Amino acid sequence: MNIKSVSIAEKIQEINQHLTPDVRLIAISKKVSVAKMREAYAAGIRDFGENRLQEALEKQEQLQDLDDICWHFIGHLQSNKAKPALESMDWIHTVDSMKLLNRLNKLAGELNRRPKICLQVKMLPDPNKYGWSSEELLAACPELSAVENLDVQGLMTMLPLGLSDSEILDAFNATRKFRDKINQTSNLQLSELSMGMSGDYLLAIKAGATMIRVGRTIFGER
Q: 68: which of 101, 125, 161, 165 lies 20 to 30 Å off by Cα?
């Protein structure tokens, strides 16, 4: 029996059926060929997420003709890679410490760049994830409010593996409520919630995500 393979365009169309205009679909293209990225672009994708700078830079070189792509960095960012990240990325979702934020802020001023960033927060304890705890991030808000060269847009979260759907939804709802608490108790005004991946993006949308990071559901297994 022949089973019709589903094209990248059809997969994107399926995801789009669940999106409202205020949810941005970021196609996570790590380890994905430039040819497949061009397929996604032809299907309407303009936001691509990469987690390795060298791979992202190589792809940017090959996709120079698509000059309206918005590039998102979604991997752990080491301080010594801050400069190339600032030079090449429109968004950095993984600002996970005050040390990194201060480094980015200093370099952004020197480079005359003002990238959009998300603060990575761990709503649940997870030794395998980077990020602020909610308590640490609240305590850092006065210092965060004083940052001059970065456009602090919102929160990003990644959840521990092995959670049930109800636990996932609870954690995403908690992230939204935490964002609102920051807005009410500090000078920060955060609008974005980067949360939800291939396995749980529908729950993230339900909880108020404004950006979902979807790779496998669009491009298949790497």
A: 101
Nearest to 158 by CA among 193, 202, 120, 190: 120
Orientation angle between helical segments 98-111 and 134-145, nearest 10 degrees: 30
Residue 99 lies in domain: 8-219
Is residue 1 assigned to a domain?
no
Residue 2 lies in a domain: no
What is the torsional sign of CA 221, 168, 124, 82? positive
CB 71 within 8 A of CB 89: yes
Angle between helices 8-16 and 34-42 (to 10 degrees): 50
Burial of residue 193, with CB atoms counted within 10 A of its CB: 0-12 exposed, 13-18 middle, 19 or more buried = buried
Q: What is the pLDDT along the chain (222 residues), one digit of tens a residue?
A: 344 589 999 999 999 999 999 999 999 999 999 999 999 999 999 999 999 999 999 999 999 999 999 999 999 999 899 999 999 999 999 999 999 999 999 999 999 999 999 999 999 988 888 999 999 999 999 999 989 999 999 999 999 999 999 999 999 999 999 999 999 999 999 999 999 999 999 999 999 999 999 999 999 987
170 contacts 188 by C-beta, under 8 angstroms: no
Classify residue 3: in a domain, yes or no: no
Distance (Å, whole) CA 87 – CA 214: 24
